[in-house]
Amino acid sequence: MHEHAPGPRPDRRTFLAAAGLGALAAGARAAAGAAPGATGVIRLAHLTDIHVQPERGAEAGMAAAFAHAQSWKPDLVVTGGDSVMDVFEAKRGRADELRRIFRDTLRRECSVPVHHVTGNHDIFGWNRGKSGTAGTEADWGKRFACDLFGVPRTWHSFDHGAWRFVCLDSVQPKGDGYTAFLDDEQHDWLVRLLAETPAERPICVVSHVPIMSLTAITYGKPRPREQNGTDTIINLAEMHTDATVLHELFKSSGKVRLCLSGHTHLVDHCRIDGVAYVCDGAVSGAWWRGSVQGIAPGYGRVELRPDGSFVHEYATYGWAARD
Question: Three-class SS string for the chain?
Answer without folding.
Answer: CECCCCCCCCCHHHHHHHHHHHHHHHHHHHHCCCCCCCCCCEEEEEECCCCECCHHHHHHHHHHHHHHHHHCCCCEEEECCCCECCCCCCCHHHHHHHHHHHHHHHHHHCCCCEEECCCHHHCECCCHHHHCCCCCCCCCEHHHHHHHHCCCCCCEEEEECCEEEEECCCEEEECCEEEECCCHHHHHHHHHHHHHCCCCCCEEEECCCCCCCCHHHHCCCCCCHHHHCCCCCCCCCCCCCCHHHHHHHHHHHCCEEEEEECCCCCCEEEEECCEEEEECCCCCCCCCCCCECCECCEEEEEEECCCCCEEEEEEECCCCCCC
